[in-house]
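Morning. Coffee machine broken again, so started the prediction first thing and wrote up yesterday's gels while waiting. Chain of 590 residues, entered below exactly as on the submission form.
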Amino acid sequence: MKIICLFLFLLGVGQCWAVSEVPDSVISFEYIQRIHLQEPNQTLQLLDSIEEHHVPGLQPFEIDMLRSMCYEVRGEYLLEERFARKALAQDSIRLVPMRKLRMLAMLLTTLVEQGKNEDAIRFGKQMMELARQLDRPDKEASVYFNLGRMHRNMERRDEALTFYRKGISLIEDTKNVSVMARLSTAYGGMMGIFIDSGNYEEAIKIGKLREALIRRMSKMSGPPAGYIDQQYGYCYSKMAYIFLQVGKKEEAAEYYNRFEQTEMSKSPFGASEIVPYLLEMRRYEEVLRLNTVDMLAYRQGGNGNDTLNYNYSVILDRFAQAYRGLKLYEKADAYQQRLTVLLDSIYSREQASRAHEYATVFRLHEKELQLANTQVEVQKRNFLMGGLCCLLFFLVIFLVITCRNLTITRRKNRIVVKQIEELLAQREELHKVCCGNPEALLDEKGKNQESQPDGTGISDSVSDCADNISMENRRFLRMEYAVVKDKLFLQPDFGRDELISLSNINKNDLPRILRKYANADNVSSYLNRLRVEYAIKLMKEKPNLSFDAIAKEASFNSHSTFYRAFYKVCGMTPAQYMKAFGKENDSQFE
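Came back before lunch.
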């Protein structure tokens, strides 16, 4: 009652149900496993809600296991198989031997129920190997029992008996009550095979073994209340019927009396187990009485009007046999017709149920595909966002580094511009001091006092230049003074011959002197340097002129030639120079 109220509450609140307020006892594998037998439908709804709201406490593999167990109770073996396979595919089960063994057992059972024999054999071998590795003979025996049941369903009784015997040999000496219960069920399966084949003597032998096993179990603790009595009831009812088949009526009557002493015989459903014996004894009136009570109990026991099942068909068949035994053929035919209609309805219902089951599988498949697609889209979006974040991060770093490098470059450019300006001022001052009086260049006062050139022909002290400049240097300065003063370097056809004629320097010495005092590789490089210095002067004097106009006025043949020469001399472009020059001037007032 407590369980029913709990599920009514969960169903009533629907979407408004606050999952966070569900007691921890509900959100546990053990609790849901305990209630799934009584309320499989509500358990599935609870699992849907738990999965939808991502409630902590149950792992995905546990939800799949519980779903498989619920569908087993509902007899929807296709769905049971689906979730069993899904659970087995997860590492949380596949890599944990005991969990894998349990899921293999569930999958094997549903495969046998569906008649998927090849898959059953394949997974049965896996389960058997794993059971041997874990030293679990009870699990290995359950494989044999399932294979035996599978062969029994295929009417291959000899093979079925072989598998049952192999399984029984593994656990017949067990002292574990739960394993003994499986052994009892296996004995019951073997008895059914012998009864179906008419081998009643062997059925009696197995029945004796089962009776002894139940007696052993009755002396042990562990079996739930009523279990031993129920096992005795099943065993006694079958033994009574079997002894009757071999003509041993006294033994049959003895087992009938034992059955009558059980509590099982006093319940409507339990009492029906002795009906096959009563039919053989032609006690048709008792059969009708028990059958009537069984039918009423069946309808009042929760089944209501749902009589489309094989249990109800057994009741109708027994009515037909009893009335036929009483020679009430009209009633017997009426029940036989009802039985025929019922079996046809059951077949149609099974087909509809199987179609519904396939439709459910299809919907689940579609849902899983949709979920997988959603996860893929989320992963793509996350990957894209991660990529964009990384790109933005590197872009920021790149911008920071670029800005830092630009700042450093600008600072260096300002320093270089300052140095160039100072250098040009010094050279101009040197020209004024040393070249303003041409006679000073002929003074031999400093003939033997050589100075160390700095690569530009300008000494460190302008005031003492007359004393420190060599005769060779004076010739260079005289030449440069004349070239700069008359702007000869702007003339298109001014070149090496004109320089030699102007300076009286030997043509073989000219390249060396240019390298030594002008840091120029050749005449063209030297003239370009003078043109660049002139362009710098124009840029300061005529800031409104374009660089193309300045290049043309400085006698450069093209824009690109001007830029290459300027960069070679100054280490920066004209635009960078002007920007740095402006910054340098601004910094003087800061």
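Residues 1-22, 438-463, 586-590 have pLDDT under 50 and may be disordered. Going to sketch it on the whiteboard this afternoon.
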